[in-house]
Design a protein that fits this description.
- By secondary structure, the protein is α/β, with parallel strands linked by helices.
- It has three domains: 14-98 and 364-419 and 443-471, 3-Layer(aba) Sandwich (Rossmann fold), CATH 3.40.50.740; 112-317 and 522-540, Dimethylsulfoxide Reductase, domain 2; 560-686, Beta Barrel (Barwin-like endoglucanases).
- Helices cover 31% and strands 16% of the residues.
- The protein has a seven-stranded mixed sheet. The chain has a six-stranded mixed β-barrel with strand order 21-25-22-24-23-28.
- β15 (395-400), α19 (405-408) and β16 form a beta-alpha-beta unit.
- α9 packs antiparallel against α12.
- 57% of the residues are buried.
Length: 705
């Protein structure tokens, strides 16, 4: 709540509609001034007239595929004012748009899992529940840990935060495999395997090698429930613990001992989403499944494989799996899409081809980018490259409550309300409640709801009836609720403030039915079984993602490995201006954690301003020394609002500490084209020059007429 209250009327709020001066005076077109230009505040009617005319021009001259609908969620806990749904519904009513597919969070796994295990939804949304794990699991091998900071959120929110309590009640021992010791709560009984980043797959292969050599693998399970195991076993030749020790930094004897413990106990292998958010991110997920299959415990209570425990609050949850009220988006007549993490490629390389999940696709020629809900200058990698990409469209439109970097790189910025400034119905995935979200604050300045903005545009474009169906926002809430349930009535629900939903099953084991009878309950893979080797993936011929799990070395190395993970003081980049987020800053910048050994070698102490750099860019951060970070590793969370300084003597840098000036804009592989922003090779030095002022929390230069 500290972030919400402080950000509500913060100076960074967008008070009135604004148009970039270059676009206002020179008209639409590519422009290198985007992100550097001043803004002119324009009355609502004028800006909506201009925007409607530009939308009509683009769709008439270039087709609707030239409009990219770039919303990326997380903008509101409400189901009606969900910005992505509002934007997509509006664009669909005017003829469609080029869409994005998958997510930055787990886009790699979303493409891989159908080939290997058949059902992405089951793995990500119907995992074995925490009570089952607490009762039956004896050993958890947690690749990437179970970071508690991530489990307080899901899309739509979490009413009851259950995961911390479940972790506290664990009886299982945990093998924490992570460069960060605090990727697991300190209260959990664990041994820390301080692995080098980007080497988890090598460890998994060495564990598998040990199981084979010592005859500890379950041949009957592999024969009955899997295909392609013999090819995978042959690939393990030479991948012994001594080989892995040189890659991972974990002693060979410890690898052997861990493999024996896994075979001797009811073992759950978990892989966080962070590990697939890397170059070759398919491999640790696939190898984790193969390793679990070799233990033969998939489908047994407390055993098998999990993906995302600690990555999101609903993984392993016992809440109901019910579809709550939602705004229909309609049908998109345009079939073009891009994998979500390829936005810069889309803008920089129109007409070029790329591989994706066995297809060869082509980037459409994008003329207008429309963003409502989300901040690509948080989610995306290599922000200097993204800045260049954002100069290429004719027009960039952004709805935003705050002057984020995305807003500053727009041509038209429309002030949007926050969740506290409007009415809505709130509920998250597998949530225990539906919440009546009463408005508790007046809109800041001239801010409007996304729905009101799109309704006004729809009126100007002649599709008002199709978009609004004649309803006000309150009437939409009543309509959506009534279509979902009749009792209690909406008026009673709204007065009560919440509705408790029936509980979901307390005990559930992933793939239990498949284990009981694989013929009656086959997986949705081509074979109906677990595909340790996938003939389909092998047939694609991708060298960066062959047909079975392999360890592929990262394409870059450096003095230090940067881990750019999720923050604990905010959700992604949301409300960075809030009190909780600001209290976590060091020297007014994002805090970077270094091991004391690495800090001493560079003359760095806690509280110093440091420069973090590589060939792609640099940022300033505030140093914190912490032996919970493995030597050779630094940790700088994502989400500080990007604050570029273009004319600094050391070269372009972010004054605020955004790690995505350092991460590479490359896909995890040609299979998924997923985000690879979790790691980067960097170096760190103590910054001794005059430190530039952090300007990210202050509005850009604006002028009236």
């Amino acid at each position: 709540m500290g972030n919400l209250a402080a950000a509500l009327d913060h100076p960074s709020r967008v008070a009135r509609p604004a148009v970039r001066r270059g676009w206002l005076e020179d008209g639409p077109g590519p422009d290198d001034r985007r992100g550097r230009d001043e803004f002119v505040e324009v009355p609502w009617d004028e800006v909506l007239d201009r925007l409607a005319a530009e939308l009509d021009r683009v769709r008439t001259e270039h087709g609707n595929q030239a409009i990219f609908g770039g919303s990326y969620g997380w903008a509101s806990a409400g189901r009606f004012h969900h910005a992505q749904s509002q934007l997509h519904r509006f664009l669909n009513t005017i003829g469609g748009f080029t869409a994005s597919r998958n997510t930055y969070s787990n886009g790699t796994s979303s493409v891989l899992l159908p080939h290997v295990i058949g059902d992405t939804h089951a793995v990500l949304r119907q995992a074995s529940t925490w009570p089952t794990i607490a009762e039956h699991t004896e050993l958890i091998v947690a690749f990437g840990g179970v970071p508690e900071k991530n489990v307080f959120v899901t899309p739509g929110g979490v009413t009851v935060h259950g995961t911390p309590g479940h972790l506290a009640r664990l009886r299982a021992r945990v093998a924490l495999v992570s460069p960060l010791r605090d990727d697991l709560p300190s209260t959990v009984d664990a041994r820390w395997y301080a692995i080098r980043p980007a080497s988890d797959t090598a460890l998994m292969l060495a564990l598998a090698h040990t199981l084979v050599v010592e005859g500890l693998h379950d041949r009957d399970f592999l024969d009955r429930y899997c295909v392609g195991y013999p090819e995978f076993e042959r690939s393990l030749l030479g991948k012994d613990p001594e080989w892995a020790a040189g890659i991972t930094g974990i002693p060979a004897a410890d690898i052997v001992a861990l493999a024996r413990q896994m075979a001797a106990h009811r073992t759950l292998i978990t892989v966080t989403w962070s590990l697939q958010r890397t170059e070759h991110g398919e491999q640790p997920v696939w190898a984790g499944i193969a390793l679990a299959a070799m233990l033969g415990q998939i489908g047994l209570p407390g055993g098998g494989f999990g993906h995302g425990y600690g990555s999101m609050g609903d993984v392993g949850d016992t809440g109901p799996e019910l579809r709550v009220p939602y705004l229909p988006q309609g049908v998109n007549p345009v079939g073009e899409f891009i994998p979500v993490a390829r936005i810069a490629d889309l803008l920089l390389h129109p007409g070029e081809t790329y591989d994706y999940d066995g297809e060869v696709r082509r980037y459409p020629d994008t003329r207008l980018v429309y963003w409502a809900g989300g901040n690509p200058f948080h989610h995306h990698q290599d922000l200097n490259r993204l800045r260049r990409a954002f100069t290429r469209p004719d027009t960039v439109v952004v709805h935003e409550p705050h002057w984020t970097a995305t807003a500053r790189h727009a041509d038209i910025i429309l002030p949007a309300t926050t969740a506290l400034e409007r009415e809505d119905i709130g509920s998250g995935r597998r949530d225990t409640h539906v919440i009546a979200m009463h408005r508790i604050a007046d809109p800041a300045g001239e801010a409007r709801d996304d729905y009101a903005i799109f309704a006004a545009l729809a009126h100007r474009l002649g599709v008002a009836d199709a978009f609004t169906e004649g309803r006000t926002d309150r009437q939409w809430l009543e309509h959506l609720y009534a279509g979902w349930r009749s009792e209690p009535a909406f008026a009673e629900f709204w007065a009560d403030g919440e509705l408790r939903l029936p509980p979901g099953p307390e005990h559930h084991t992933l793939f239990e039915a498949f284990r009981e009878d694989p013929a009656a309950h086959p997986l949705k893979t081509p074979s109906g079984r677990i595909e340790i080797t996938s003939a389909t993936v092998a047939g694609f011929g991708y060298p960066d993602c062959p047909g079975h799990p392999v360890w592929l070395p990262p394409s870059e190395t450096g003095p230090l490995w940067l881990i750019a993970n999720q923050p604990h003081t905010r959700l992604h980049s949301q409300l960075d201006a809030g009190e909780v987020s600001q209290a976590g800053k060091v020297a007014g910048r994002e805090a970077i954690r270094l091991n004391p050994v690495d800090a001493a070698a560079r003359g760095i102490t806690t509280g110093d301003v440091v420069r973090v750099f590589n060939a792609r860019g640099a940022c300033l951060a505030g140093a914190v020394l912490d032996d919970a970070v493995r030597p050779g590793v630094v940790q700088l969370p994502t989400g500080p609002w990007f604050d570029p300084v273009d004319d600094h003597p050391t070269g372009p840098l972010c004054a605020h500490g955004n790690p995505n000036v350092l991460t590479a804009d490359i896909p995890s592989s040609r299979l998924s084209q997923g985000c690879a922003g979790q790691h980067a090779a960097v170096d760190v030095e103590r910054f001794t020059g005059p430190t530039p002022r952090v300007r990210a929390l202050h509005p850009p230069l604006r002028k009236g007429r």
